[in-house]
Design a protein that fits this description.
Blueprint (H helix, E strand, L loop, with lengths): L4 H7 L2 H13 L16 H6 L5 E3 L8 E3 L2 E14 L9 E7 L8 E4 L3 E8 L8 E3 L23 E7 L4 E6 L4 H6 L4 E6 L9 E10 L18 E4 L10 E4 L3 E8 L5 E5 L4 E6 L2 E2 L6 E3 L1 E4 L4 E7 L4 E7 L22 H8 L15 H7 L14 E4 L2 E5 L3 E7 L33
Parallel strand pairs: 1-11, 3-6, 5-10, 11-14, 13-24
Antiparallel strand pairs: 2-3, 3-4, 6-8, 7-9, 9-10, 11-12, 14-20, 15-19, 15-21, 16-17, 16-18, 16-20, 21-24, 22-23
Length: 439
């Protein structure tokens, strides 16, 4: 379906020791997820409402079944092995906590007006709960441990059941030992489609923002870090391993963004003007929609961004805080910019053979050296800059990906490759003289 921008607007200590000990036994339990064996699980929910199923970058939607008047889901909270950049040399891997084998947990999809029944099996070494962030429901289903329910002990399965009264982009996460449990990966998105096909889109993407502190040489995220994080992720993945958003020219696109990190994120899309059409309170009235090229997504918020992809190309989509598009950021490091380091480097090489000084002229050389295998970082610590584009090093990481718009896309859903710019539409060199002046 092809729409213009005009149509877009008009149309629609001891305790810790106990946890560690329990972890060894509970986390070793097998992890079958029987409800994930149902065929064609979530797409019917979207099709029922005339909506496109959600594409969760580097993730999936959770299979469900219909039983006794409710859509049933089964979530299992457990320890998981997680790789922040699958397939990338030097990636960082951790022991995280997640749902059904992943962090974030799988996306839940349902339709406004349906009744949902969600089973939660706790395979963690401590108690937990689930809060349904943004959903309107009975107080006893709100998931706040100690306030609206008892905590769910390890090894037990409890069930949440309620009617979906509002549609929009929502979140789920624990409200029990929340600081630690969210910091270690327990989180997910809950998409409730409207009953009608109003404001339908052709492509519907889901991205959950998060931050992590993984100290060099360690394999568990540190929940005690409040601000100085070193990994910034879309769906617990860093660039260049984040999936691109594949779109056909003329299609109407929705990007759903949730933020369960400890920082606000100004999300910037190149090439298009989008409309902010909703948040964690649901879809906004049309008169509240407003055009932007960057939208701030605050801690605990969701935002829906919608646009018509009417220009072909490879368009960057990223957080505009520059240090959030880097990996393994160090803190409190002396500034080497402009500092002559040759004499110092020679002295250091007497102690550390092969040492290379960097940063005197900037940090662009960092990726060149790390890609060549020089100056390897600490164990389980990925390079700060990564990614290879059609014209060289991309020098990015963290919260960065690409929206690829094409006239046609591969039928198998594979990446179409880099965009080929038509003649006369790309920047070009006019001089190699540093003293160049216009005449």
């Amino acid at each position: 379906m092809k729409l213009s921008r005009r149509q877009l607007l008009q149309g629609g200590g001891a305790a810790l020791a106990g946890v560690v000990a329990a972890q060894a036994s509970v986390a070793a339990a097998p992890s079958p997820h029987p409800l994930e064996n149902f065929p064609d699980p979530l797409a019917p929910a979207a099709r029922k409402a005339g909506q496109a199923p959600v594409t969760t970058l580097n993730g999936r939607s959770l299979p469900a079944r219909w039983r006794d008047g409710a859509r049933e889901f089964h979530l299992v909270a457990e320890e998981v092995e997680h790789d922040f950049a699958p397939g990338q040399v030097g990636s960082t891997r951790i022991k995280a906590w997640g749902y059904n084998g992943t962090t974030p947990g799988p996306t839940l999809e349902a339709v406004e007006g349906e009744r949902v029944r969600i089973y939660l099996t706790n395979r963690l070494p401590e108690h937990t709960s689930i809060h349904w962030h943004g959903l309107l429901l009975p107080a006893g289903m709100d998931g706040v441990s100690g306030l609206t329910q008892p905590p769910i002990p390890p090894g037990e399965t409890w069930v949440y059941e309620f009617d979906l009264r509002n549609h929009g982009t929502f979140l789920y996460h624990p409200h029990a030992d929340e600081l630690l449990q969210v910091a270690t990966g327990l989180m997910g998105m809950f998409i409730v489609h409207p009953r009608s096909a109003e404001d339908r889109v052709d492509r519907d993407f889901a991205i959950l923002l998060h931050n992590w502190s993984v100290h060099p040489g360690t394999y568990r995220p540190d929940p005690a870090v409040m601000t100085d994080f070193n990994l910034w992720t879309f769906n617990s993945t860093v660039f260049p391993a984040i999936d691109p958003l594949l779109v056909k020219r003329g299609e109407r696109v929705r990007i759903r963004i949730g933020n369960l990190s400890m920082h606000d994120h100004p999300m910037h899309l190149h090439g298009f003007r989008f409309y902010v059409t909703g948040g964690d309170g649901g879809r906004w009235p049309r008169h509240s929609w407003h055009p932007e090229v960057m939208a701030l997504v605050a801690v605990g918020q969701t935002r829906d961004l919608e646009f018509v992809a009417d220009v072909n190309g490879d368009w960057a989509f990223h957080c505009h805080k520059a240090h959030h598009t880097m990996n393994a950021m160090g803190h409190d490091i002396p500034n080497p910019l402009g500092v002559k380091q040759q004499d110092l480097a020679e002295r250091i090489r007497e102690v550390i053979p092969g040492y290379m000084a960097m940063g005197e002229h900037g940090m662009a050389e960092h990726q060149v050296h790390t890609d060549m295998g020089h100056m390897q970082g600490p164990e389980n610590t990925m390079p700060m800059m990564m990614g290879e584009g059609p014209f060289g090093k991309l020098e990015m990481g963290g919260m960065f990906t690409v929206v690829k718009v094409r006239d046609e896309l591969p039928k198998d859903g594979s990446d179409p490759g880099w965009y080929q710019h038509p003649r006369g539409t790309q920047v070009r060199r006019v001089s190699q003289d540093p003293a160049f002046r216009l005449k």
